[in-house]
Design brief:
The chain has helices spanning 15-27, 49-57, 91-97, 132-139, 149-152, 156-163, 191-195, 210-216, 234-243, 256-263, 275-287, and strands at residues 3-7, 38-42, 63-64, 80-84, 100-105, 119-127, 143-146, 166-169, 180-183, 201-206, 221-227, 248-251. The chain has two domains: 3-149 and 271-287, P-loop containing nucleotide triphosphate hydrolases (Rossmann fold); 156-266, Udp-n-acetylmuramoylalanyl-d-glutamate--2,6- Diaminopimelate Ligase, Chain: A, domain 1, CATH 3.40.1390.20. It is elongated and about 65 Å long. The protein has eleven helices and twelve strands. With 294 residues, it is an alpha/beta fold.
Length: 294
Amino acid sequence: MTALIVASSEPCVGRSTIAAAIAYRLGREGKAGSAGPVTLARLAGDDSSSPDAAAFSALEGVIAAPQPVENAALSTISGDIIIETPPGPVDALAQQLGAQVIVVTGPSSPTLVVASARLAGIIVTGVPASELATVSQRLGALAVIPEDRTLAAPSVADIAAALKAKWLAEGEPASASIGRVMIGTVSSDAAAPYFGNRANTCVVTRYDKTDIQLAALNTGLQCLVLTGGGEPSPYLLDRVVGHRPDVAVLLADGNTVDTVHAIEPLFGKSRFSGQGKLDRIVALLDEANVNIAL
């Protein structure tokens, strides 16, 4: 078994995203020196381990167990293995497995100390475009990933959890990413041009604004959040089931403004989920010609 550990000093810096991308790229057509299957494993030990493992197992082109892996079970995995660990020191695990370590960090994350003989490289994520060159030189990074709308986007499930919302319609997989949050218009006349030509949107409007809701359904809507806690018109849900089963409909208790404010902090801080994020980070690493071998 050849192992590569993906680690970070703190959560929410893109560790899961990078781990999934490395596993995918190593397994793709047997590239990067990988011999045999490449397994992606999420090490148990923190609250994010189960959701991360479930997200990994749902990806196309990645071999991953749907449950977190205990330390003692790592040696039973055959072939090459990419291990995402909980945030924090990993030197002892790296020595135990004879593994190299990729450190994932934000531009201002605390330093994660890794023995130089074990360090395979540093990947910096979420870097503003104006700071790309500076950050790369300062940290000597293997790769510097710019701020990216797709990678920063929360999922429908993230939004539902943050709002403690009731699911009225499931829509696409809950891991689907939301690229833009929009507040419903005052009247339906302005809704179509306002919502139009935007994909993967989340529209937030009152539960009783049926005309606005129906107008939004005619656009690239991904999620409809109804505020105020009241039950919407049955006609809306009939329309979703009959014409837009891909749209998730959530019911939140708060008002529209407070609901949008609760969603805003999710951008850039949501956990990895969905094929869309994997495809995007793989494309960025490919474009940068980043070579990570086992």
